[in-house]
Amino acid sequence: MTVYVVGGPPSAGKTKVIERALDAGAFDPPVGVAKLDCSESTDLGTWRARSIPARQLLAGALCPDHVLMEKYPELLAWAAEKGLQTLVVETAGLCGRCAPYLRDAVAVAVLDATAGIAAPRKLGPLLADADIVVITRGDLVSQAEREAFGVNLRSRNDRAHRAWLDGRTGEGAMVLATALRTAARSVCRQAATGAGEVAARTPLPQLYCSYCLGRDQAGIEIL
Amino acid sequence: MPEPAILTVLPGTDKFGRSEPFGSLEFEAGRTVAIVGPTGSGKTRLLADLERLSPGDSPTRRRVSLRGVPPAVVAADRAVARISQSMQFFLDLGVREFLEMHRDALQRDREDTDLDAVLGAANHLAGEPFGPDTPLASLSGGQARALMIADVMGISDAPVLLVDEIENAGIDRHAALDVLSAPGRLVFLATHDPLIALRADVRLVLCEGAIREVRETTPAERRLAARLAREDRKTGLLRDALRRGDWLA
Questions:
Q1: Which residues does residue A145 pair with via DSSP β-bridges, in sequence order?
Q2: B63 vs A: CB within 8 A
Q3: pTM as predicted
Q4: Secondary structure class of B145 (helix, strand, coil)
Q5: How many CB atoms lie within 10 A of CB A155?
Q6: DSSP letter (8 states) at residue A191
Q7: Peptide linkage before A203 cis (omega within 30 of 0)
Q8: Beta carbons within 8 Å of B11's beta carbon, 6+ residues apart
Q9: What pLDDT is recorded for position A156?
Q10: Of A141, A150, A174, the CB nearest to B58
Q11: CATH architecture for residues B6-217
């Protein structure tokens, strides 16, 4: 089974990227989708309408990336039980600090070109650890802004394959599908030599957050 | 000045999977190529293939390659620039700040990059003047398109330039074609406008997703283009008179 983890800021177009990649034949069938959300989501309807097995996880009061790391074994077990060849995990995509990419999964970051040319500089491992960076809405910004966005993007991750996708028309989906398949082969080769553990590429933040634990007063310092 | 480039297109298939009727097409830097054909004939698809130098994995299966361009320029996605109708400025900057941003992002030499010349070219294209401090958000559609063209010509180093339906951009078409057809650039123009198509060196006729014909502009067509240009200038003068509130006849 090949696992793809798709991250990116909210409303960058993650669901549309997965749909377009699916339509372009990027994934070996049968394909399932797991979606992590904070409060609620209507995305499961998208997948059910396509008869694609889908699971939704809600993080509620917890950090969604933390919840996803906890639940990976459960998701992988679900995918195995369903007999899936491909599991696509769509993260809630909130945090510039961390990214729940797995060592043996293809890491896909989705960024919105209209978010501004400095957007790539504001992201941490979400962008730096990605194998593929999909840039959406690049068709809407000026050439100058596309170039400046690209410069900032490469300053954070020069290794990733860059795929520009127009989510509305699907322009760029074939190239994205090729990139996804190529990355999957490379990740599979790595996985074959690994210990088989499910582990994050970059550790998540290493402190308990006192606010996560129920504090609400501003200005509490724990270090 | 970008290096001389040659772009090669190897045939793909039309919407029904039939091969395109040519062996290979080569376009040299300095040429202007029009892309014509009815809506739905594949003009946008062709621009998309050209834009990403498609290795043959797009729906058309065309293979597009570029030589005579430093590999680093291609690797940085800077070999091909595009100006389309759907583009707008998202940055909250003044015009000059915007140009400075672009120059600095591409690490252009401050001495060698004449931003005043870019501004001048943009104003020449726009018809309605704007200044260095005008916010991008206040530009009219025509002014914005004029700035995009001047910016791409003056600051981007892309040897290949793709422009969608410049006739609908609200700018001076003659001036735009003069600016775009600079030495060293290869320009593709998707258009429905005879004046623009005939000012190109060659035109690609698209039909059902395929490049069906490659027509070099004939001397008779060039004469027709000159006549159309004269008529067009007359219409332009009438438009100005209309704006001023004059009698037109």
A1: none
A2: no
A3: 0.87
A4: helix
A5: 10
A6: H
A7: no
A8: B19, B20, B21, B22, B23, B24, B62, B211
A9: 93
A10: A174
A11: 3-Layer(aba) Sandwich (3.40)
